[in-house]
Write a structure and sequence with these properties.
By secondary structure, this protein is of the alpha/beta class. It has a single domain, classed as P-loop containing nucleotide triphosphate hydrolases (Rossmann fold, 3-Layer(aba) Sandwich), CATH 3.40.50. Helix content is 48%, strand content 19%. The strands form two sheets. A five-stranded parallel sheet has the order 2-5-1-6-7, sandwiched between helices. Strand 3 and strand 4 form a beta hairpin. Helix 2 crosses helix 8. The protein starts with a helix and ends in a 5-residue tail after the last helix. InterPro entries: Adenyl_kinase_AK6, P-loop_NTPase. Interacts with small ribosomal subunit protein uS11. Not a structural component of 43S pre-ribosomes, but transiently interacts with them by binding to uS11. Its EC number is 2.7.4.3. One of its GO terms (cellular component) is nucleus.
C-alpha cells in the first residue's frame, strides 16, 4: 500500500500499545464499541491463526511471526477503521496508522495488576523495567512520526474514561489526509 492508498481510507487506524497490564485491551474494546471501529487484539489473532513460531518457556508467551501477522492484517489495515491492540509497535508498517497511543501506568499499579495475573517474577520484573524506562514510548517515537504518537496515563478508571473521551473525540474529528 502506498501513501496514496492511505488517503483513500474513510476511517482511521489506531495502534494502542503499552506494557502488559496498562489497559490496552480494556481501552481498545471500549473505544471500538464507542466508535464502531474494529478491535484487533494481536495476541488473540496470533493464537487463533497460528501466526507464531512456537512457545517461549522463558518469557511464557508465543514467539510471534511478525511477517505472518503483517500479511494477515494487510487488507484490513488498507481498508481502515481498525484499532490494533498490541504491546509493541516496531514491526508494523508506518503507513498503517493515523494515531499511535502508548498507555502508561504507575509502576506500583502495574505491579499489582501483573501480580494478579500470576506473572512469574522474571516476567513481572521484565515488564516493570520496560515501563520504568519508557521502552515502548521510545519505540513508538522511533518508528512513527512524532506528531501521531501520544502517551496517555492509564492508572485508574477515571484515566481510562478520560482517555476514551479524548480518543473518541479524535476519531470523530479525523479526516483522511488531503
Amino acid at each position: 500500500m502506498t501513501q496514496e492508498n492511505n488517503k483513500k481510507r474513510n476511517k482511521p487506524n489506531i495502534l494502542v500499545s503499552g506494557t502488559p497490564g496498562t489497559g490496552k485491551t480494556t481501552t481498545s474494546s471500549a473505544l471500538a464499541e464507542a466508535t464502531q471501529l474494529r478491535h484487533i487484539n494481536v495476541g488473540d489473532l496470533v493464537k487463533e491463526k497460528n501466526l507464531h513460531d512456537g512457545w517461549d518457556d522463558e518469557l511464557d508467551c508465543y514467539v510471534i511471526n511478525e511477517d505472518l501477522v503483517c500479511d494477515e492484517l494487510e487488507d484490513l489495515m488498507e481498508e481502515g477503521g481498525n484499532i490494533v491492540d498490541y504491546h509493541g509497535s516496531e514491526f508494523f508498517p508506518e503507513r498503517w496508522f493515523d494515531l499511535v497511543v502508548v498507555l502508561q501506568t504507575d509502576n506500583t499499579v502495574l505491579y499489582d495488576r501483573l501480580s494478579n495475573r500470576g506473572y512469574s517474577q522474571s516476567k513481572l520484573s521484565n515488564n516493570i523495567e520496560c515501563e520504568i524506562f519508557g521502552v515502548l514510548l521510545e519505540e513508538a517515537k522511533e518508528n512513527y512520526p512524532e506528531d501521531i504518537v501520544v502517551a496517555l496515563k492509564s492508572d485508574t478508571i477515571e484515566d481510562i474514561t478520560r482517555n476514551m473521551t479524548t480518543l473518541s473525540d479524535w476519531v470523530r474529528n479525523w479526516h483522511p489526509p488531503a
